[in-house]
Every structure is written in C-alpha cells, then in structure tokens.
Design brief:
Length: 350
C-alpha cells in the first residue's frame, strides 16, 4: 500500500512561527516554513485534505517526518543556518549547451566563469561535459572526460564540485580528479556500472526523475496521470535501488527533473507540489534555471534573456522547500533569495 503525505497551506517567517506556537501548523523540513494542511494520498487517490495538527494516528509518523530536516548533504551548510537554499553554479564545458552556447568549452574561460560564481556565493559547482537538453546528441565518455577533467582538477581545490554525467567511466574519472558528488539525470539507470561506482566511492549522489535514459527521446515520455506523485514514486524506487547497492539514504539528494520529459504544465505542477518530495527524507534539488518553459511564459526565446523568470522560479522553489537550486546566474539568485528571506521574516539578513 503506497501512502504519501503532501504538505499544503504553507506559511513563512513570522506567520509560520506564530502558527507553530499556536499549534495550528507544523514546521516544514526543520526550516523557517510551516504547513497547516496535509493531503493524504493512498494508492494514488486523495483521501482528504485536513489540518496538519489533526492527522490520524496511523498517518502521524509520515507527517512528523516532514518536520525533520534531511541530513546535511555533501558536507555543505544546512539551508536553515544559511537562511536560504544552497546554490549550485552550473558550468557546462560543452559546445552545444542550450544556455551558454559553448562559451565555457575553453578551459580558461571555464575557470574564469567558475571563480566568478564562487565569488558570487555559489556553495557548489556542477560541471558537465555532455548536453542533456531535449534532442541532444550523446557524447562518448572519453570526449566527456577530456572536456571536464581540467576544470574539475583545478576547481575542486577551492570548492565542492559535482560531476553532471550519466556515464560510469566519467563518474570514476571525475571522482578521482577531485569531484565529490555525482549528479545523474538518469538516476543511475543509464549505465549498469553507475550504482557500483557511486557505492564504492562512498560519495553523495543526486538522482533526477526523467522518463527513459536518453535525452533525445525523453519528451516522448511526457505522459502522466499525476506528474508530482509519479516523480515522487519513481525517486522512492531509485532511493531503494541505491540502498540495495550500498548507498545509504543520507548520501542521496533528489531532483524532480524540471524540463526533462515534461510539458510546461508538468513543470508548473512539479514546482507547486514540490513539498510532496520532502516525504522522501532527502534534500531536494531544483534545476529550472533558463529552461524553455520560463521562456514561453515570459516571452523570452533566448535562454540568456531569462534571468527574471529564472529568479521568479528560484524563489518559488525556495518557498516550497527546495534544499538546493541549480542555477546559471549565481549572484542574482543569491541576492533574490536574501531579499525573499528578509521580506518573509520582516528583518534584514543577519
């Protein structure tokens, strides 16, 4: 019997603290938000939406789990202590990235961009050598490794680095070069050796929801009865696969896969119902920066012009419990999150 609890009626800042003190809401994810309602879901059906503090006894364990923060991820600060989600800066060392058109393929340009992101407040860098945009052509691991290793070797001296790859050979080479985290858009399904590489390395991993394992065909799988619930159940199954392979849950983060085998409506639904993923007990990573649906909604066909829309989505994800935001525009995102937190709390950042 599959049971899920979806936090609803979210509150922030003073309102959240007041509601928790008045026993009218429960703290969300150990942070500065609270939830006053819960949707009870069993076998895909909504049983009801009720006050969070009136949850039936046999559902209380699942509800209380939503009040606890996930384990710290990859040795990074906890978002509750920062007052904002963690920020992961994107560094695409590719000739065909949808967002930067290959500006960072040259190693020197990549290092300059990466150091600028770190100075702007990035908590981690995510380095990838294969484009995974819809319809992107695959890259063999040897080419991918040659692209990313110079940047990883240098940047891992200064900051935590994750490698964005679906190839086990690339994971192994990147970890040997200093990367600390594996970020796999296929949730360790594309390469049969990926699970064992991560398990043997003892490194943290980010599992993303995507239909299939090939970016060229993923949009054909954008068919869901309930995208938020199906993404959550998929990720639960992948966490179980990791645990069976010797990767403990406390080393796993999850990503709903905004834009990966999703329509605009699916992306918006996932963002709105992001708190459902908190029931997995893992940090939640959201990578929506400059995605196509932002361009469609904001009327900005060029990815580089989607800053305003990306910031709006980043704040919306933060308000719904995201632990980490994967972004291209680090300085602007950090500033937007500081202002959002200040407005929500009624006080300037400490």
């Amino acid at each position: 019997m599959a049971r899920w609890v979806e936090p609803m009626g979210l509150l922030h800042g003073r309102g959240a603290f007041a509601a928790v003190r008045a026993s009218a809401a429960l703290p969300l994810d150990g942070g500065n938000a609270a939830f006053s309602l819960v949707r009870l879901i069993e076998n895909g059906e909504t049983l009801g939406i009720i006050p969070a503090v009136e949850t039936p006894e046999d559902w209380q364990e699942a509800v209380l789990a939503l009040t606890q923060p996930p384990a710290p991820f990859a040795g990074l600060p906890e978002p509750a202590t920062l007052g904002r989600p963690l920020v992961m800066g994107v560094l695409n060392v590719t000739p065909d990235s949808f967002s930067d058109g290959g500006r960072h393929l040259d190693p020197r340009a990549a290092l300059v961009a990466a150091h600028a992101m770190l100075e702007a407040g990035a908590d981690m860098l995510d380095i990838g050598g294969e484009s995974t945009r819809p319809g992107a052509q695959p890259v063999d691991p040897q080419t991918e490794i040659a692209r990313i290793l110079p940047a990883i070797r240098e940047l891992s001296k200064d900051a935590p680095v994750s490698v964005d790859t679906r190839h086990a050979a690339t994971m192994r080479a990147a970890l040997d070069a200093g990367a600390e985290v594996v970020n796999d858009v296929t949730a360790l399904r594309h390469d049969p050796e990926a699970l064992s590489v991560v398990a043997e390395a003892g490194c943290p991993v980010i599992l993303m929801h995507m239909p299939g394992t090939d970016p060229r065909t993923m949009q054909a799988g954008a068919d869901y009865a309930d995208v938020a619930l199906e993404a959550t159940e998929f990720l639960a199954a992948r966490i179980a696969a990791c645990e069976a392979a010797g990767i403990p849950r406390h080393r796993v983060a999850v990503d709903p896969g905004i834009g990966f085998g999703k329509t605009m409506e699916h992306n918006l639904d996932l963002l709105d119902r992001l708190p459902l993923l908190l029931g997995l007990g893992c940090p939640v990573v959201v990578g929506a920066s400059r995605k196509r649906f932002i361009g469609t909604l904001s009327g900005t066909p060029e990815p580089s012009d989607r800053l305003a829309g990306s910031l709006g989505v980043a704040v919306a994800a933060a308000a719904r419990g995201a632990t980490m935001l994967r972004v291209h525009d680090v300085a602007e995102t950090v500033a937007a999150l500081r202002l959002w937190r200040a407005a929500a709390s009624g006080a300037p950042p400490g």
